[in-house]
Amino acid sequence: MTAHKRRHTTQPFALCKLSYGEFQWKTNTLPQLGMYKVFQYSTKRLCYSSTGTWNSYEYLPMGYVSDTLTKEGWYFSIVHNGSWHWEIGDSRDQLYLQLSGPTEVENHWYRELLPGESFESVHAAIAMTTESFEDAVAQMMVWRRTMRRKNADNEKLPIIFNDFMNCLGGDPSEEKEYPLIDAAAEIGCEYFTIDAGWYARGSWWSRVGEWEPAKERWPNGIHKVLSYIREKGMIPGLWLEIEVMGIHCPIANQLPDDWFFMRHGKRVIDHGRYQLDFRNPAVREFADGVIRRLVEEYGAGYIKMDYNINAGIGTQRAADSAGDGLLSHNRAYLEWLDHIFIIYPDLIIENCGSGGMRINDALLTRHSIQSSSDQTEYTAYAAISAAAPAAVTPEQNAVWSYPLFDADLEQTAFNMVNAMTMRIHQSGHLARLAAENKVLIKEALDYYKGCRHLIGSSFPFWPLGMPAFDDKRFSLGFYNEECAHLALWRVEDEGDCVIIPLDGCKKKIREVRLVYPKDLPCSWEYRKKENCLAVSQPAKSARLFQIIYA
User: Fold this and answer.
1) pLDDT over 50 (residue 2)
2) Helix count and strand count (H, E) for the chain
3) What is the spatial distance between Cα 437 and Cα 403, in angstroms, rounded to a whole number?
């Protein structure tokens, strides 16, 4: 708990909406949120919590509190993959910021300590600044890069094709995959991931849990398809949801109750699935076997680890409280992840929770890549992509690029710009795209391969302010020691030239180049005296610029 004298304080915080509206930072003053100075103290608190296993489904476990007079600001992150709580309150002319893991009142957590026992609380990270939100983001980004597991994926940043989004949508088969594999290899993808559905015949939602290939989908065996991916020069990947078991899974009724979350003497069910309890060594052994089979037998080098339920307040089995059972499970799951990465240090495991419903720094110290959203509309995705680096490092932030098969050139380029400054998750019906669209995608991937080595040492800036869904123009820049890049989106149908200040680049600028797409309409001028960029571009378009230092 930290206190300081009450001043005019603002409170930006991150708001996530149901898997399709992640990273929408909003700024409010304390009075706007209902807190006024009425006495030496009040009973008003500004409280934000998340309960359950989807711990960023409504709010991210992070935020920023600043003093507008002194510019002192605190960017904080609650480093936990389960329930959390934070609040701002007042006492005797001071404000306090409290950061916490699960609590009894908000999250149904308590634990009784016997004599000699101890308990370690959930951790938090705080970046302090006297400059700006962008400076605090940069400081937190340094911390995130320092604390996470060292891995080759965040250095090489390979291009990943995934067959789900605006493509097969969870209905893969041998026949459908081969044209996609050929097309993905042709444009330069380096990983090819078969998403949901590979393990099931027909409807599969409530039957998941065995993780064996469906013969109906792979009449010649899934090994043959994965081997073909390798023959085409790519590393194969598979989708997995290891923490759940469908209520109609053939083995679910054969397993004891201590494999699952239990409340009121019954297994917890959410959306037709049980939640596995990773405190149980038998559950972790089962999960070990699934990973071993996918990696050693099938040859997968990439796993998209999804998670599509919320198990609620926790489990009452072998715990002082349901929240305590959840906390212990959360920590056991992290220990299991650490164990898997020791066995398979080169395995890439993507963190996904119906898109961004489980974004937190506890998981991101392990995973090298994070799904940013399941948003299917590319123009709406732009605001998510442009705001994401305030919460996730760009080398970990996977952004879909998924042009529809009948997309025109501007739509395709818009899709690519969404992803080009971070991690490209390529999708869409590549085999059905027009040849000119494939050329435009390959142009983007080729440029990306030439500059991706800079992403892991870059820091973000937002010349037009933090993006929001109702903005018609917004931009995202990244600067590093070598150069800077600037993405600019125009969502509205009509609009005049936009002026973009470039002070966020941190260095003196020699020139600005349009690097993608090179041949679509756009006019721009770098105005050296004002240190700004003037850009005119078509409606519903996106452009990427490189900024060359003097």
Assistant:
1) no
2) 11, 31
3) 9
